[in-house]
Amino acid sequence: MIYTPIIGLEIHIEPNTKSKMFCACPQDHFGKKPNSQTCPICLGLPGSLPFTNREAINKTIKLGLALGSKISEFSKFYRKHYFYPDLPKGFQTSQKDEVLCLGGSLFGKRINHIHLEEDAGKLMHVNNQSLVDFNRSGCALIELVTEPDFHSTDEVLAFTKELQLIARYLDISNADMEKGTMRLEANISMLNAKNSNAKLPDYKVELKNINSFKFLEKAINAEIVRQESELSKGRKIIQETRGYDENKKTTFSQRVKEGSEDYRYFPEADLPPIEIGELKIKNLKLKIPELPQAKRERFQDIYKLSKDYIEILVSDLNRANYFEDVIANGMKQPRLRSLHSLHSFAMTVANLMINKHLDTDYPEPAGLARKIIELEDRSYESAENTEEAVRQVLQTNPEIIKKYQNGQTQVLSFLIGQVQKILRGSGNPKLIGDLLKSKLEK
Ligand SMILES: [Zn+2]
Description:
This protein is α+β, with helices and mostly antiparallel strands and 442 residues long. The chain is built from 15 helices and 17 strands.
């Protein structure tokens, strides 16, 4: 292959704030009755005045801190002008130049910046009619822009899945592609490896509306194949926006871009600039939990679990927390501590959660710890172990046996106790008694 894919990403994440970006309407619009969550501000009615949602700013900063971005002390909103029926104001309030977070990286891929903006409404096309739902209009939207550092679909997948997990760990968004709370656009071009002077190709194709991980993989692969085939035929690739046709398994042209669009950006005079002090950044830093990669490394270090087990546990923060709660609870119990090393107990817990799904049967971590004691006792008091314990007790207590055989049958309870001691306190006394009697009376 003489062409190397060069891919940059623009990822939109809808934060799980209570209200929209510049008004008090609810942010969560999924499945709501069309146009039931609007007000003069998000409908862009004349005279309405927006106000900034602090929660959205904090959540964006948290994402920036988690990815190692520099948080801007001073940042501003701009009006980005364009016309579309789902944009009632005729401009989108967004950021430019003075954005909230600059730089950062994830899995070695550089992040250019992260900014905050508002979402547009939604168009629905029904029976040759176009309907507009403004519930999403004005919703807070975080946009993360990467450098063109990706060279394969696998790298894009790994990055976006990790970003989704980080957003969930930070509790800033469920980042669900199917529900549209995480949306992806990929800028794709191919670099001719023979042409070693150029760092980047002189064009890029924007792939839009990628709404699932499966779709992402297919769409980017299809576009790489298309560009490769065009270039190898000596054709030039047009700078354009393309979509992906699931049925034809190819991308198709949506809009040809001639030069860069002029959005006539200008500062939003209705909103004050955002000033963020050091103390605020410090306080938000304290709220950043242990992130997935750090958790993977710690689980590897202290529990020594397999990579597969670690991935299953870490891919869901609730599951990871539950796992550690069972460990903490279990290791407080002398009984489990005497039977297990931390590693062997961690293996037992992970196995019961992953292969037997006992975490769903025991929603309380302490419940699963108790269940483990029960399971281990049951396996310990197996017939074989009981038989062996009885044999040991009979062998080591000749004096007591003589007493029993001389008619002092009350010593039986002492012998049962000795057997139970070997069985770590478990075992059914009636069964042990019967077994002892049958041996003693032989
Ligand atoms: Zn509103």
